[in-house]
Amino acid sequence: MDRRIEVIVADITTLKLDAIVNAANSALLGGGGVDGAIHRKAGPRLLAHCLTLGGCSAGEAKISPGFDLPAKFVIHTVGPVWSGGNNHEDKVLAACYRRSLEVALDNGVRTIAFPAISTGAYRFPAGQAAKIAVRTVSRVIAGDDRIDRVQFCCFSTAAADMVSARLSALEPTP
Ligand code: APR
Question: What do you get for the CA distance between the two ends of the chain, in Å?
């Protein structure tokens, strides 16, 4: 298990890291859940900035400043809407984590937190999502010392337990 990966229970908008990830929708114009919380805390300049980003497709990621948030950047990604599991949902969810980290690295981000993308309004089963999140992040950061810390920021202890179980089940990294 990579010691740079942590599981926490917190409101992601309170985290003072280089970047927090937003589980957005393709319009990038705000919404409910974690998206709503991030826009409220970042202030109206975030929405104004997002208007210039041209939206974002599922599995992609775009970066903005954090404005009034403690985090320096917000990386907006768009998860898959769960529709039974036969519509490439796993692949698109993995792409969200991978592309968010790639965008982070391109912008010098060393510390980053992810919410449980797609597990709220988009109804992706939380256990399956945790498995994909942990596996993808571990693979992307393995052997890359430009990342100092990745936090899985869960909104409940039940969600955190699922991610922790998946982390413990990972093969030890060499
Ligand atoms: N901090 C951390 N996690 C949070 C927070 C928060 N402040 N608020 C909600 N969460 C958690 C939820 O408990 C859930 O586990 O984030 C996870 C993702 O849920 P949603 O925010 O509903 O995101 P998602 O399922 O990806 O749906 C995206 O919802 O609000 C809209 O604009 C958004 O249309 C998009 C859709």
Answer: 9
* Model pTM score: 0.97
- Rounded Cα distance, 9 and 164, in Å: 11
Residue 143: which residues within 8 A CB-CB, separation 6 or more? Answer: none
User: Shortest CA distance to 8 belongs to which of 26, 18, 20, 24?
Assistant: 20
Identify whether the C-beta of residue 26 lies closer than 8 Å to the C-beta of residue 56.
Answer: yes
Amino acid at 94: A
Of the residues 2, 35, 106, 144, only one is catalytic, namely: 35
Backbone φ and ψ of 168, nearest 5°: -65, -30
Give yes or no for residue 125 CB within 6 A of ligand 1. no
Q: Which two tokens stand for residue 57?
A: 């497709």
- Which residues pair with residue 111 across a beta bridge? 149
Write the pLDDT tens digit of every residue in 67-103.
999 999 999 999 999 999 999 999 999 999 999 999 9
CA of 29 to the centre of ligand 1 (A): 14
Distance CA(57)–CA(64), nearest Å, equals 16
Report d(CA 135, CA 112) in Å as an integer. Answer: 16
